[in-house]
Amino acid sequence: MAGGDYALFAAIVAAGSLAGAGRRLGISAPMVSKRLARLEARLSTQLVHRTTRRMELTSQGTRFHADVTAILAAVAEAERRATGRVGIPSGPLRISAPTSFGRLHVAPHIGRFLAAYPEIDLTLDLSDAFLDLAAARVDLAIRITANVTSDLAAHRLATSRRILCAAPAYLAASGAPETIEALTKHRLLAADGQMPWRLSGPDGLRVIDGTPVIKTNSSEVVRELALTGEGIALRSLWDVESDLAAGRLIRLLPVWQGSTDVGIYAVHSQERHPWPAVDALIAFLRDLYKAMPD
Question: Which CATH number characterizes residue 8's domain?
């Protein structure tokens, strides 16, 4: 009975609602609610905050979910060993990626990954926020950063080379900066948390700080603002390479670029050893991006 309730709780968390879990398991929402209440009574603790609009895990529920997920994974692995199917990647796998990068360089390749591993049930979330992986129930995240926090295991996939650029319309109206110091006199575009810019060039490292002319939490919005001539942006080549080739954006101060410390990483919790599905995705991404130019 406990194993069934554990699977039920995992389904509730994965679906994000009691009704969604019921649909996954083929039972009614009232039955899901009844069994969840029975589990909480047996544990003498509340696992889920329920309101009419949303459902959130309590702190005890978050910890219990991590333990339950590990237990269910161990049971699944034991079953695979019993049937001679050890190490076959399978089961639910939730990944997170930055919005632009996920749309351009993850989503187009998901079909090939699932064709190779048809027993994986994959969920892809796109967000520019650095999510708490445990709270967001994310198994593997793509991070583009210079520093990965010590609580995460990091697998570097590629370098994210970033360049200064602007649209021809902006340059026609405002001119192009001729020196690195002149940048501060221009309209600068950046999403929340992307300033100051750390640029490396012939004189070493320079830090360019300022207030973006338009506040946004979206890196994709910054790209669109640059394309429409609103200012100068520091963009990754993987994001604007086609715009540069087509002349929609012009590279500025080519001897300067974003710090090469910034990399593209696959990260997961240090507390949990990656299981076959996570290992398979990391290997797939390594192979996918090994030919990506910096």
Answer: 1.10.10.10
Nearest of 274, 45, 294 to residue 152 by alpha carbon: 274
pLDDT in tens, 152-205: 889 999 988 999 999 999 999 999 999 999 999 999 999 988 899 999 999 889
DSSP 5-19: HHHHHHHHHHHTSHH
pLDDT > 60? residue 77: yes
**Inter-residue contact 94 to 125 (CB < 8 Å):** yes
Say whether both 91 and 118 belong to one domain. Answer: yes
Rounded to whole angstroms, the Cα distance separating 258 from 161 reads 7
For residues 198 and 259, give the distance between their C-alpha atoms in angstroms, rounded to a whole number. Answer: 6
First to last CA, the chain: 53
What is this structure's pTM?
A: 0.68
Give SS3 for 77. Answer: helix
CA–CA distance, 269 with 274 (Å, rounded to integer): 8
46 and 119 assigned to the same domain: no
